[in-house]
Specification:
Layout (H helix, E strand, L loop, with lengths): L12 H9 L2 E2 L9 H7 L3 E7 L12 E5 L5 E2 L5 E2 L2 E3 L1 E3 L7 H8 L3 E11 L5 E13 L9 E6 L12 E5 L5 E4 L1 E3 L8 H11 L5 E4 L2 E3 L5 E4 L2 E7 L14 E4 L19 E4 H15 L17 E4 L2 E4 L4
Parallel strand pairs: 7-9, 13-16
Antiparallel strand pairs: 1-15, 2-3, 2-8, 3-6, 4-5, 8-9, 9-17, 10-11, 10-14, 11-12, 14-17, 15-16, 18-19, 20-21
Length: 321
């Protein structure tokens, strides 16, 4: 049994070997989608931000320009799609970082999982506010080129090389790939300590965000040579918990998603905090797939559920603020 010890490809020679045997991109699908499909998918998206340097009265100027990673357009607060959307501010509360940690995040390139929400700004009207729910910090200030994937070790065991033990999920897309290696050493200016941190993060969920296109060698080995990589600094808020106000939250009996009858389970008392849209979606799926199985479930005697509130954009049980 061969466990691919070279799966992280921290040796610079790997890239030279691939170049010598001939590499070609393996991601022919460009993975582009429309802003309408972005809305239909729901939830937060991965974005980059840059400061607005225009000089005019705030909040009309001085905020941020937001673009969607790996995609050409983003849906703005007014419903229009554009390459970049202007937001007057970034709401960092969902990251739940200390002031020092937030300062460190802002001190180098970063990627956020976030959503643009409308916010009233008095006489200036309604403008966009970027609500961050997850943060990823670049290992240094090097420029990122190529598509960005979330890469994590699946810990597969192979009987022969090359061993595709890494899973790569292209951000803001349904495109996935299996990789034999990721070379983190080619990031400009990266330190040995930085490579070690990235290698360690690859070995556990949620992995590492890696900028660089997937290529394949003649022998079938697939790899990414990173131009930049990002480590997660905040677990953030899942789409199932996201909220803007207390009214968005509820205590649910459907504790997980159901996609077929094989996923059915016996619902108990309302013990899990979630947002209302998630509770309604799970209830519809449970009714569709699990109506027959409910007859075999025991009856539970439930007490009143604890209060639920929206705290830092996350529905939380037992909280009255």
């Amino acid at each position: 049994m061969i466990r691919s010890l070279s799966r992280f490809a921290t040796l610079a020679g790997l890239a030279l070997a691939l170049h010598a045997t001939g590499c070609a991109p393996v991601e022919a699908d460009d993975g582009e989608d429309s802003a309408a499909e972005e809305v239909a998918a729901g939830g937060a998206v991965y974005v980059r931000v840059r400061h607005d340097t225009r000089r005019c009265v705030s909040p009309l100027c001085g905020g941020y320009w937001v673009s969607r990673v790996n995609q050409r357009t983003l849906r703005c607060v007014d419903g229009a799609s554009a390459a970049e959307c202007y937001v007057a501010e970034i709401d960092w509360a969902g990251l739940r970082l200390t002031d020092r940690a937030l300062e460190d995040l802002q001190g180098r390139p970063f990627i956020l999982r976030a959503r643009i929400a409308p916010k009233a700004y008095g006489p200036f009207g309604t403008m966009g506010s970027l609500v961050a729910v997850e943060g990823w910090s670049a290992i240094n200030g090097a420029e990122a080129t190529g598509r960005v994937h979330r890469v994590v070790d699946a810990h597969r065991v192979c009987v022969r090389a090359p061993c595709p033990t890494l899973d790569a999920f292209r951000l803001n897309s349904t495109v996935t790939a299996t990789l034999t290696a990721v070379d983190l050493t080619r990031v400009a200016g990266v330190t040995r300590s930085g490579v070690s941190r990235g290698t360690a993060a690859l070995g556990r969920e949620p992995g590492v965000l890696v900028a660089g296109d997937v290529v394949t060698a003649a022998g079938g080995a697939r790899t990414v040579t990173a131009s930049q990589f990002y480590l997660r600094v905040s677990e953030g808020v899942s789409d199932a918990l996201y909220c803007a106000a207390d009214a968005d939250c509820t205590m649910g009996t459907n504790t997980r998603d159901v996609a077929s009858s094989a996923d059915c389970y016996c619902r108990a008392c309302p013990v899990v905090a979630m947002n209302v849209s998630t509770a309604e979606r799970r209830a519809r799926a449970y009714q569709r797939y699990c109506a027959a199985s409910r007859e075999t479930c025991p009856l539970f005697r439930c007490v009143s559920p604890p209060p639920v509130a929206c705290v830092n954009h996350a529905c939380a049980a037992g909280s009255t603020r």
